[in-house]
Every structure is written in C-alpha cells, then in structure tokens.
Design brief:
Chain lengths: 112, 119
C-alpha cells in the first residue's frame, strides 16, 4: 500500500527566503505526482504535476522535482511571500488507476 | 475554468440523522471523488465514480454510500450520522484522457469543501 509522507509538518519563514518542502513515497511505481495548495477552510488547488518520466516542473516561483527511484519529491519556493502561506500537499497517482494517495501536508507560514 | 461546487460549506447534524452531501461539476468529467480530511490523517478517499451509476469503494467506505444518477452530480450519503464522521468533506472531479470531458488539464479539480459537524 502506497504511503506518502511530508516533512516538516509545519514551517515558518521570513518573507523573501527560499524554501524547500519534502515529500516521500514508499512505492516507486507511480504514474505521476502532484503538488497542491490548500488555504484554510478551502478546497485544493493544483500547483504542479510531474509525470513519472519527468524530473521536474516549473511554474513561476515554484519548482517541483521528482526522483522516482528514491521515492522523493521536493517543492522549491523562491523568494517567499506572505501570500504563499497555506498548506502544501503532495499526492501520488499509482499505475493507471485514477486514485490519488495524499500526504498529510506541510503548513507554511511566511512572516513579514 | 472548471468549477466544482458543493451544496453546503458548513453543516451541523445530529447523531442518527441521514445526511446528503451534494457535489456538482460543470466540465463533463467522467470521474468524481469524495474524500474526507482530518488533522494528522490527510485526505482519505471514501468513494469514487468513473461513470454514471458506477461506483468504487475507496480506502474508508464504511458508514457511507454514494449515488451518481447524472454525470455532473455525485452525492455522498451518511445513512446514520455518527460523531466520528465529523470532518471536512471534499469532492473532486477528473477528466478521462480522450473522454468527452477533456476541458482542463488532467488533474483533479476540487470543490471548496463541506465542514460537517455531527453532534
């Protein structure tokens, strides 16, 4: 059974810092990996999706990497802003099934 | 833009009541999902549906049922609500590659969530 772990559970950084969020998964036979953002009391918004054949994806200040063989992904946020404060979740899709397995998230706070 | 709506943002029910949570998506997606989200446990899949009248159990289906009579609507039913079903419930939809609902990228689109409290 796939298990997804995110470390740290919470992180507080001052505005302007670059930061890395980590995600690890136990079964490397994945179809893709996604990073989502969730604001308090809200649904999830997809940030980046990396196919199993890809190594990284970039969108603006966000860069996600994938090392399938070691079961790891990182989300790099450059020049963090208070508006980046949210919970970040990673999720893996195994094989051809539509199901996603989610990590428990990293709650990020960017302070002024 | 893909839009997934859920019937209520907040809901308070009593133990033993029958509860209906409704989810509607407007992009003709084939697949729809119901999750619950609890602190420290993350999102867990309750049920999903890959077509009208089709349903599959997720990881935690006990105490829940679902209904998908129309493609755009996926309902989650708590037959007899219990306090341990107090949670945040999230609905999502997903297109099938090559399917009729190909608008949007191949990713799950989430509704805003329903925070259910069972007293």
């Amino acid at each position: 059974k796939q298990e997804v772990t995110q470390i740290p559970a919470a992180l507080s950084v001052p505005e302007g810092e670059n930061l890395v969020l980590n995600c690890s998964f136990t079964d490397s036979a994945i179809y893709n990996l996604q990073w989502f953002r969730q604001d308090p009391g809200k649904g999830l918004t997809s940030l980046l999706l990396i196919q199993s054949s890809q190594r990284e994806q970039t969108s603006g200040r966000l860069n996600a990497s994938l090392d399938k063989s070691s079961g790891r992904s990182t989300l790099y946020i450059a020049a963090s802003q208070p508006g980046d404060s949210a919970t970040y979740l990673c999720a893996v899709k195994g094989g051809t099934a539509s199901k996603l397995t989610f990590g428990t998230g990293t709650r990020l706070q960017v302070t002024l | 833009d893909v839009k997934v709506t859920q019937s209520s943002r907040y809901l308070v029910k009593r133990t033993g009541e029958k509860v209906f949570l409704e989810c509607v998506q407007d992009m003709d997606h084939e697949n729809m999902f119901w999750y619950r989200q609890d602190p420290g446990l993350g999102l867990r899949l309750i049920y999903f549906s890959y077509d009208v009248k089709m349903k599959e159990k997720g990881d935690i289906p006990e105490g829940y049922s679902v209904s998908r009579e129309k493609k755009e609507r996926f309902s989650l039913i708590l037959e007899s609500a219990s306090t341990n079903q107090t949670s945040m419930y999230l609905c999502a939809s997903l297109p099938t590659p090559g399917g009729s609902g190909t608008s949007g990228s191949y990713t799950q689109y989430f509704g805003p969530g329903t925070r259910l409290t069972v007293l």
